[in-house]
Design brief:
With 141 residues, the chain is an alpha+beta fold. Helix content is 28%, strand content 38%. Strands 1, 2, 3, 4, 5, 6 and 7 form a seven-stranded antiparallel β-sheet that branches.
Length: 141
Amino acid sequence: MPVKQISVSLENVPGKLAEVSEYLGENGINIVAVSVVDASDVSAIRFVASDPEKAANVLRSHGYSIKMTDVLAVEAPNHPGGLNAVLKPLKEVSINVNYLYTCLGRGEKTVLIVGVDHMEEAIRVLKKNWVHMFDEELYKL
């Protein structure tokens, strides 16, 4: 099942990402996975939070414009070529991986956050190929 991802654009200046992290931390919200991409004046931040609805509300209350989307959280084997356990089944049915990033502090598990162009089909294909997908349990890891 999909998990909720929050996307926010931040001015690319010192302290902006720390400000977002501080607002979330003050409200008991953990950042489970994060991706930061800069583009000169603006940074695009994508993240999965322990409480996505609360995180969205906190950021909106501080004036941030956010976008919430569904993404997949899947476990990839942690060995050479393990990523292909996730990517190959998607390739075989022509599902595009728009972006991918990993979760923070997962120890032995490699949990990937994957944005795809055909969510329902991706879920079906990955389940059929025995790829472990996370839903609410991701927020508790």
